[in-house]
Amino acid sequence: MQENKLVLRAQKGDNDAFSELVSLYEKKIYNLALRMTRDREDALDLSQEIFIRIYKSLPLFKAQSTFSTWVYSIASNACIDFTRRESKRKTHSIDEEEYFEIPDLKYSPENSAENSELREQIVGAIDSLSPEHREVIVLRELNGLSYDEIADALDISPGTVKSRICRAREKMCSFLSKHGNNFGGNPSKNTKGR
Amino acid sequence: MNCSEYRVIGSSIIDNEASEAEICQFNAHIAECEECAKWYETIKILHEGSSDLSEEVPPELKMRVMKSVTAKKKPFLSQFKFTAAAAIIIVIAYAAGGLSAKYSPDAVPQETSIVTDEAKTAATPGMYSRSAILPDAEFKPKVESAELPHYKSKQAFVILLHGTDIPDILKNAEYDEYSGHRYYKVPKENYELFKDFDYDSLPCDSEGATSGLVIIKQ
Known about the structure:
The complex is a heterodimer.
Chain A: H1 3-11, H2 15-37, H3 40-57, H4 67-89, H5 114-127, H6 131-142, H7 147-154, H8 158-178
Helix pairs in contact in A: 1-2, 2-3, 2-4, 2-6, 3-4, 4-7, 5-8, 6-8, 7-8
Chain B: H1 3-14, H2 20-32, H3 34-50, H4 60-70, H5 76-95, H6 117-122, E1 129-133, E2 142-145, E3 156-161, E4 175-178, E5 181-186, E6 212-217
Helix pairs in contact in B: 1-2, 1-3, 2-3
């Protein structure tokens, strides 16, 4: 069934329709939450919170944007709230980008193939990013949103999305380079003033 | 244009977000700049490697979500019984010197809060009284003991489910939002206006009894 019909039914209180919407978005939302929390239990809780927020806000969805954009907008706000809660919990203050310096090795894949190693390195690099950079990379790379869609969901300009994604990639390259994985390049070069 | 600016273009090429002109510009640049050419190869690898990072969703997620949203909402009045119990417990704790935290909006009970027998017992007259008139026919106007933990003083509210039409009488009223509801503050001098208000016109959701009027009496 078409997504907009499901949304209309869900807005009228049809929980079966809402259940189908959950099925459509659960993988995207869960993986966004997983990368933002870097913890499976927290990701599960955050995903649940996001879907409940969506459910409660359904009467407010007026189709002025796509449902997908609206969902990501709610998810993004929930992720920001989570990040704030987490940062309040932390007692020590360190540089934002260094905050998540230690990659979460629990995401290590089961097999020892090269791809698995690369995957683990990339996950570590994403986890090392600030929440702001991590969010755009996850929305782009894992969820496949266009720059315009990310801009709408996060309420920032497409130009900001473009530069923020590039900056996030540079940070990831720096992280990998620092940890001895530069994939044959030297990405940490200072590019200013050239 | 410097290398930083070229790299923004290179990153957008990876994402299929660059124009033809930008692609030409960038290709011309990396033909001369070995560092940017290496950087571009690196982020291409990162991009390709990122496409397979998704993990499977725990099956309990959907069950938990649907259980939450389909849970029968507790009658509106019950929430305040629970609140009253919490308030009394907090007062006792204050008296015992064991609690110093201030009341906060976080203390508002969720719609799925379970009202225990202890809570019902605790909601006895003695602190503040209120009259509650609800759109659900199941509830009759009556006086209960209650205190809203997130407000320090006695206060009247009309509680509306978020997203529903707002009655004219509340159009200019100040409100707060908690747990999917709007709490419209009713100024003390306006209490009389609500005596003849058509309470049945207050919107409620399909579960019923999630909107209502609460007046904390002196």
